[in-house]
Task: structure prediction
Amino acid sequence: MMKKILIVDDEPNIVMTLEYAFKKQDFEVFIARDGSEALQILQNNTPDVVLLDIMMPNVDGYQTLEYIKKQNGLKHTKVVFLTAKNKASDIEKGLKLGADKYLSKPFSVKKIVSEILELLD
Amino acid sequence: MAFESVLKLLFFLIIGVYVTFYLFDGTTDIYNQMSQLADFKSLTTFNNVGDGFNWAFMIMLSFVAIFLLPRQFQVAVLENNREKYLKKAIWLFPLYLLLFNIFVIFIAWAGRLTFSDSVNAEYFTLLLPLHHENTFLALLVFLGGFSAVISMVVVSTLALSTMVSNNLIIPYGFLDAFSKNQTERNEKYIKNIRRLSIFSIIILAYFFYIAFSKALSLYAIGLISFVVIAQLAPSFFIGLFWNRGSSRAAIIGIIIGFCVSLYTLVLPFVMKTITGTNDFVEFGLFHLEALKPNALFGIDFLSAPAHAFFWSITINTLLYLVFSLTQKGHYRERNYAEMFVDSRNYSSLQDSALVWKGEAYVADIKKVLIRFLGETRANRALSIFFTKYNLPQDTQMADARLINFSEKLLTGSIGSSSAKILIASVVKEEQISLVEVLKILEESKETIASNRLLQEKSQELEQLTSKLKDVNLALISKDKQKDEFLDTVAHELKTPITGIRAATELILEDDDMPQNIKIQFLSNILQDSDRLSRLIHNILDFEKLETGRDELDLKPHDIQQTIVKAIASIQHIANKKAIRITNKNPHKFSVNYDEDRILQVLTNLLSNAIKFCPPDTGQITVDYRLGNSAIEVLVIDNGRGVSAVDLNFIFDKFYQTSEQNTIKPQGSGLGLAISQQIIKKHHGKIWVKNNQKSGATFGFKLPFNYLEHA
Result:
């Protein structure tokens, strides 16, 4: 079965590269440009993993994560933060909220893909 | 002395009673006879204001003399050992003077009636009994006067010789020799110096008498000495109540006052004695009207002594006050001033509060004491001192109390200035700053003056502290802002770099990438690079404006022209979205501003408007209007307007509205912040409001005359 990934980021250029990379790994890729779009998608879909930016307009990454944690149907969905906020205090906060991984921007696409694959194994 | 005074009073009362009730029929009789005389009225009333002044000055002069004449000072201050004496003297002395004066008037009138103007009035008390052939009474009066003279001469000479020996000869001549000598020899020396002074003073007085006194009455001589000694009055009396008086100012005042009194009072009769003419008094020095010694600067209605008193004391006082105020006193002087001016401090301060920061060995001080007091007296004094203050008898280091104590001890035999110099020679003293002096004074006993000074200082400090606190808070907040700014900058820079890095990595490593995707990635890289460089440019620009390093190039420009340029530069972007830009006000108007910077603001406002305007139906109007003191430029669009939340923050750096669709616009987040900085630098104001129908209006004001607001 195809693995499903939801990429939530407001920077289209970044989204484009991730989309290309995960499609190559035979993922089914969903894209949301901010938290509120992500929540809409999550109502009808249950991705295996959500790749989540933090600083986004309207509903930000933290709020999106909280929503996911509350949904019973998304129990098995892994959440990975991918953000430019990489101070120690930010990372601690993200992991405390229940993120499975915390990855920093700028990133190596190869590394992101392997981290996600590892997480899903 | 006391006996002599009582005797003098007694004799005077006897002669008074004799004249009034024996020679005449009581006071009424003398008055009645006297009032028959033609010049009675002129003798007993002030004839004019000048006489009034004369009288007032004479009273003041006598008042001063009572305290300051050497013999008076000797008795009133130096020989006054206890406060009790002072209390007694306060009523006894005036009573004594009053008793004396009861008969003065009647004796004077009686003498006048008997001899009219023919004899010197000073001799009435002698001449009246002689005239009536009462030789016994005349003898009595003569003896009374004689004893008074003797005592006056004795006391005056003693006082003067002590001053001369203690304050002039010993400290400035023989002190070194004394320090090396043995006790007994010192005592002998000191006694001899005193004797010599007494002798020379009497001889000098005699020569003065020979040279000048014959021409002058006792009264006139007395007044001259009163005026001369009165020169001490300003510093003496003011210094009692004023802690700012300085010794140098006192000396300057005294010297100049002395010179004035010499010129106005002593010089005239000296010149008269020498030249035999009265030219000096009548024509003045160099025949200058203003310099006439008895009518300086045209004040010609006073008697010679009153005139001299007035001028010398006025000048003396002024100099004393002015120099005291303009020059800083020595710390020790201030210290003493504090002590003496506030008498409440005196008792607690006299032993301990001579604020003193130095070191001295008891042994050294003892050596000095022995030299002048002898071994036994010195030992006894020290032992009394140690017992009094509960100090061990073998104390090694001297404290301020011992220093003061020893100075006082020595003062008795060699005078205070010598004592000070001597003690200072064995004491290693450090200078104490005034602040320290005041601090210690405050600690030992709160003095009002020092407290006030300290309070002022502490208030200053408090103000300074709170200022520092404010500055610190401002710095902290600045620091925090800087941190946040850097955080945001880092985030903003990372975003395009992330895009570039990811896309480049994919192109580099994925050989099977389709051509169209490769082209898409490459153009993304280009876009991100542009964004990056724009961002860097704006950050630097903003920093430059915010830190004030950028100087404006202010020149008069036509605002209409600038608006046209701004629209032209942005027209192609507007065209892409088919947005119409209208330049509403066609009139020219010249204002002082930096055109490049204002163009930057206008372009920014216009591109913002274009960004938020709907395509095809977008309408942007640029307008300007004139106010009282400023020109106001408006950029009006028909876009979505600005949300209530955004209105407050829209000019903050990196603030980007949360309603920018979902695609980030091309902005750096610094455009409006930079615009605000530019307008602020022009001392203007930038603002935004929503239009009633739709869209927003951004406006800024530029003052006509920038300099007025600078």
Summary: The domain at 3-120 of chain A is CATH 3.40.50.2300 (Rossmann fold). The first helix of chain A runs from residue 12 to 24. The mean pLDDT of chain A is 91. The first strand of chain A starts at residue 3 and ends at 8.
